[in-house]
Design brief:
Layout: H1 5-9, H2 29-58, H3 62-85, E1 98-100, H4 105-142, H5 151-174, H6 186-205, H7 210-213, H8 215-227, H9 236-240, H10 259-287, H11 293-313, E2 318-320, H12 322-331, H13 336-351, H14 353-360, H15 364-387, H16 394-412, H17 422-428, H18 431-447, H19 464-468, H20 535-539
Antiparallel strand pairs: 1-2
Helix pairs in contact: 2-3, 2-4, 2-13, 3-11, 3-13, 4-10, 4-11, 5-10, 5-15, 5-16, 5-18, 6-8, 6-15, 8-15, 10-11, 10-12, 10-17, 12-15, 13-14, 16-18
Length: about 550
Amino acid sequence: MSPRAPARTTTTTTTTGAPPHPVDEILPVRRLVPAALQHVAGMYAGLTAPPLIIGSALGLTGGQLSALLAAAFLVAGIGTVAQTVGAFGIGARLPLTNGVSFAVVSPTLATVAADGRDGALPAVFGATLVAGLVCLLLAPAFCRLVRFFPPVVSGCVITLVGISLLPVASVWARGGDTRAPDYGSPANLALAAATLAITLAIHRMLSGRFLGRIAVLLGMIAGTLLAVPLGKAGLDPLTQAPLFALPEPFAFGAPRFVPTVIATAVVVMLVSMTESTASLLALGAVTGRPAQDRTITGSLRAQGLATALGGVLGAFTSTAYAQNVGLVALSRIRSRYVVTLCGAVLVLMGLVPVLGSLVALVPMPVLGGAGVVFFGSVAVAGIRTLAKASLGTGHNGVTVSVTLAFGLFPIASPGFYDRLPDPVATILGSGVTAGCLVAVLLNYLLNHLGRGTEADPDPDTIAAERITALDGVGGTRPAPRSAPHQGPPLQATPGYPPSVPPHTHTPSAPAPDPAHAPATPTGVTFPGPLHPLHHRARQHPQPPAATPDQP
């Protein structure tokens, strides 16, 4: 076999002769590898931040902290591969990534304050194991909630996912560590701005080429090179990381099952399931393969298994990463095998920490500058979904406005719900979860309960007033009672309606009896071809009339 054989297989068609869906396309290696590395770089900061914060609060040693990070990479890689490959009903078979949820930070720190440093992690990992099993069991029932996500609801939720990530980009752009002396310094902000400018320039100048699709990765490489003379990037992470590390099951002690900690972990799991469903809906809109009940069930099963595995190996609750959805939207590379390779790289980073240190060379301000692009892409996907909803009606407009307000309260004022009970504060403290609950409730109350509903119209249905406004395209209107048209003949749209043979009057044909003539219905009648927009035309297509031969 020639060396180019694998590249040729990327463009093969299915057995039916149709080209594969972009999600199922296998890219050549020269495009596959950089696209996968772009996803790895995009999710690196989200993967490392929760273990670093929790490890610092617990006062863990360097070896223990490395074990936490290795477990986070390994479990994230396994979960991502399961999501993209999809087997035995597990996985979404979409370019979806899984990683540690940031929602576990606050409950874990609360457990540390209550149980002390010695018994905190065994209790947290025991609760994580139970929460993963709960997610696995609830997946078939939880997926049915997708029917409560019409465009007005899913658009709000997807928009909130993107907006809620933008503050994270602002923290990264300022340096990431709020306790660092250079946090928010002009040098950090300038580095983030330069990375953003380079990314946008590459995206614009190389538009339509593959290099333009990996503009985020190239922008981060350029930003890292700029950070070297500024003293913002160095090779210290490479020298401090061990060469090989195999995560040990229950390395922090046998799991403890504390009811209060388990209850909190289950609430966090439900929040992560809601956010993952919103990310999956956004990904379905971006890739052109909408998420169905079966897709959501498989995705949640993979997330539950990854969470349960994290409880064994020393990782935390798993969730879908919306920033990678933004990368798919920005790069327009929809192949799930790109993310499969991303998951494989994460597994290697968990087993060989030196590889993870390569990504650690990228400074936080560089990640912040690039994050502005792909975080905002998620919000754009939500706005596009909202455009499919009939926002001109009063009910949907109110639903969107109130939903965005409740979703932005925790973002604009992080302590907004602190005085509420802990379970309620955990649920409403996530802007995505709070907005999702409000959107579903308002859509039901305003659009489906009682009279005067204004739910999203069926896209295959056309209002009667729109049909009666059609004149001379596939139908006829009642003849006006005014004088006939004087002047040049009216010109029809070129190519439509189809030409018909001229009618020849036959004097011998009996005239219809007005007394027995059928009643002419009011409104629009369709004696000829139906208009292509009308739903009857889709259900009963009619061939165009024959065109007379031209001399």
